[in-house]
Structures are given as C-alpha cells and as structure tokens.
Amino acid sequence: GFKPELDALSKAKPGSQVAVLCYWGSFCPVTLANVQSLVVARKILVGETEPINKNKDKPFEPYGACIALVQANAEGWLAPKLKASGEACLSRANREMLFNRALSDVGPWAATLVRRGDGFKPNTKDTHEAALAHLRSCYPSLTFVTWFINGAADVVKYKKWEKAKEEERFITIGHQGHTEIVAEKSQDIDPNYFLLGPEVADVSPDIALKKLRAEDNAALDDMLHPEVKTWCYENSPYQPGSGPGTKHSFSFLF
User: Fold this and answer.
1) pTM of the predicted model as reported, rounded to 2 decimal places
2) Cα separation, 22 vs 9, whole angstroms
3) What gap in Å lies between CA 244 and CA 248, rounded to an integer?
4) What distance in Å separates the CA atoms of residue 25 and residue 12, rounded to the nearest whole number?
5) Which helix (H) or strand (E) holds 232?
6) DSSP 224
C-alpha cells in the first residue's frame, strides 16, 4: 500500500499536503483507460505533468504526494441498468478485485475501498470520508485534500466547472470532442480547485465486452490488463460465444 510513502513524507516533510484522488465508476470490467486516467491525474497533482488549464494570476501548487481511493458502483444501482440492455453485471467484489489486479503495474499509491450493503446508490461519500478520517488519524502532520476525478464528457454534461471550490475539487481527464470545451470554460477558474489533463485512450467497457465475446485478443491487448482479460475469459459471463440473450447472460446480485 501507500503507507511507506506517507511514513517517509510525514517524517521528512511534516506539514505537506497529500492529494487524494476519489475515483468512482462501474468498472465492469475495469479498462486500461481507467488506470491510465489515475496515472495522468497523479502526475498532474504532484507536478510531473502540467495541466492544460492555467491561470497566470493563480498558479497551481503541486502536492507533496498523491494517492488514489477507488470505489466500484453498487450492484443494486448498476445491475438493473445493464439488465435493461440485456447485459450482465459482475459482482462488486469481483470488480474491486479486478481493479486491484489492473493496478499491479502502476505502483503502491492506489487502492480500492470495500463497501457492502449500500443498495441502490451508485456510491456514497461516507466510505471515502471514513478512509480520510483514518488517514488523518494515522498522519496528523499531513493534510489530505480530496480531488474527484471525472471524464471530460461527464464534466461537460453536468457543467462541473461551475461546482469547483475549495470543498469540492475536480480533476478532469480529457476526452475527444469535449476537452476543448472544458478548457474554454475553465480558463478563469482557480486551478487549485479545477484541473484539466490530457486525453487518454477512449476504451468503452461495452466495446471491451464485445471483444471478449469475439475473442479478439489483439484489440483486447489495448483495452484490458492481461490479468483482467484472463479472468474474464475464465470466470465472467463475457466468455467467447456468450452474449445478451444467451444462457451465459445473467446478473450477479449478491
């Protein structure tokens, strides 16, 4: 986990600020684009990559470290949405497990948060807040600041730049056709509350499912982590030859 990094930072630079990426999503299954979004966001927050949006009057101040807390949406919210289109839903536990496998190559700065029994809500802030409270109790000399990570398309749809403030900070990952809009709308916003990063490869989970069923390994190499692909082939309802309306298409509701 990220304990060694936080231990070192608290001893070497007490008073440092740590950015905490809050990443919510369906992740059914997790794609390489999901992981790359976290990597890009982290590089911006620690000052390794410059954001697209800049404000000469209010420069962005990088953080001493950045960690990520990932939450997969609850089945009670996700399964009915997928079922409406004839698609299957992986259990939340399996989606969390797969995300951890997909993170295996990026370093010990990201982790999934386990939550059970939150019914029909896609996600809840109290799980994230509980994790923050634990971190603050373990590292009182560090200041933990939450940044919500979003895709540009979602940010444009809900005009999230209008909500950015000290208590609710957003970092946006670029998306073709939407990056320019976000850049224009956010040019006068304090980058310490709202950041825009470069575009990452656009990988739709829907397309990944089709490629799994078609056993298109060449395409899947650019979409899924090898361990995620293998697990899906061996254990998921997205195996070759399956599909909506077949005997393999069902929802896990635990």
Assistant:
1) 0.90
2) 21
3) 8
4) 35
5) helix 226-235
6) S
